[in-house]
Amino acid sequence: MAGKDRGKEYLGFDFSTQQIKAMVVDDSLNVxxxxxxxxxxxxxxxxxxxxxxxxxxxxxxTSPTIMWIQALDLLLDKxxxxxxxxxxxxxxxxxxxxxxxxxxxxxxxxxxxxxxPDKALHQQLQGQFSVENSPIWMDSSxxxxxxxxxxxxxxPQRVANLTGSRAYERFTGNQIAKIxxxxxxxxxxxxxxxxxxSFAASLFFGxxxxxxxxxxxxxxxxxxxxxxxxxxxxDASAPALKEKLGNLAPAFDKVGHISAYYVDRYGFPPDCMxxxxxxxxxGSLAGMRxxxxxxxxxxxxxxxxxxxxTDPKPALEGHIFANPVSGDAYMALLCxxxxxxxxxxxxxxxxxxxxxxxxxxxxxxxxxxxxNIGIYFDVQEITPPAxxxxxxxxxxxxxxxxxxxxxxxALIEGQFMAKRVHAExxxxxxxxxxxxxATGGASANQAILQVxxxxxxxxxxxxTSTVNSACLGCAYRAKHGLFGGSTTPFQxxxxxxxxxxxxxxxxxxxxxxxxxxxxxxxxxxxxxxx
Length: 530
Ligand code: ADP
Ligand code: XUL
Prior knowledge:
This protein is an alpha+beta fold. It has 2 domains: about 5-280, ATPase, nucleotide binding domain (Nucleotidyltransferase, domain 5); about 290-460 and about 500-530, ATPase, nucleotide binding domain (Nucleotidyltransferase, domain 5), CATH 3.30.420.40. It has 21 helices and 27 strands. Strands 1, 2, 3, 6, 15, 16 and 17 form a 7-stranded mixed beta sheet that branches. A 7-stranded mixed beta sheet has the order 20-21-19-18-25-26-27, sandwiched between helices. Strands 4-5-9 form a 3-stranded antiparallel beta sheet. β12 (about 220-225) and β13 form a beta hairpin. The longest helix has 22 residues, at about 405-425. The protein starts with 8 loop residues before the first strand and ends with a helix. Adenosine-5'-diphosphate binds near residues 18, 343 and 444.
């Protein structure tokens, strides 16, 4: 169809750990285009594994900032070469892996404002970063800075009350404090610090875009009550930080029209609106159209569990974030670092590297796994703080190995009993009309979804259109933002979106098996936690 004959379209991006993705929805919110660029495969020259560089200390984890920019060049070229017509895109928005940070060098703003359409972005922005490798959410090298923050602010609960979470190693304020303490020159040469989300928005806007309230909640720097910077936390982290961070904004605000660069190079309309970018978990909440009482479980590189909240009570576990689609609400988030990459490891060692065999192994073993329980934290876990692989037989004795099928079931049951335990620790109780909304790469696996339904004794729903809910949510948010995010309820804008699909129901005997098994899991997990 010619550009003019098609209705308005909305474009959502997700700058995630292993790839960047783009999705286009039409005015009725049907997905009409989806594409991605995988860092390891499409940009092998950066030698990332799973999109990241794990440093020798096994604690420091970074990604080259310029790789994300080159990936965007590739993604947009790929869309253009496939014949995608950018001239219908009325608005765009996006999300980024949370907590990761980008350090723009003094003078970078000028380059950003003067992008030349005959050159790729990465050619023009090369050398514009005072720290070339961005610390990302998998980093756990800032234990010292976390201790300092909690000490200066009066303890972990006070930090949680102020910022929504106690001090976490991956949270951006602690990462910035580490850079200030270990590389003062780089810190001083920094003109602006962006999150991955606001960095991506800046690329489209052609100037620095604000950090939004939801992703800003993952920094240990924002006051969760006032949704403004928390001066005490800023002062405790690094000097003159406020000016480097810029302003905060609601995730549903407009940033401004797209940079002329994209109009000239790709054919975007000049009035295409950039709507504030946010974190991938908030983006996913929008894509899942989460409502109070639902549980969203995202199975991407990390596993996360999100709840909609109206009355937040910050605790020593989990995080409270500002809600990305409503100025009056919050969301709770639990993050589990050992997600898809751990499942891939067990798939490789116990299921011949095939998801099909992995599903077969799950189906061939009984619910409850004859009482065998496994905890698989290949890397330092976030929830709970623990590391290592621990296997227990039905009498609670530690064992060194399990048969292959038992191993696969122990992994999946363990991962989801952990989610139930920690959701219950946050005060969540499973209501009789509760729904679990599953998303992310591994939500394509029906046998995994069955374990989730059984462990929670709750039906599991999925989106019919995609497993990439963060991207979808940002396409929805682009439309919401364009139509007046603060005046139009998000639910009104997405009312026409395709319905969910019931993927699996819990088995009749699920509660009898998993309520006691989850209590045993909880004790075992506590016994191995730090
Ligand atoms: P992210 O957005 O963090 O990059 P995704 O949500 O795209 O991650 O999920 C990617 C992951 O999905 C891969 O690491 C892979 O392990 C997992 N995955 C893909 N297909 C399946 C499957 N059939 N069963 C289980 N996991 C899968
Ligand atoms: C959330 C978290 C991860 C990242 C990467 O707190 O650290 O889920 O957002 O996806």
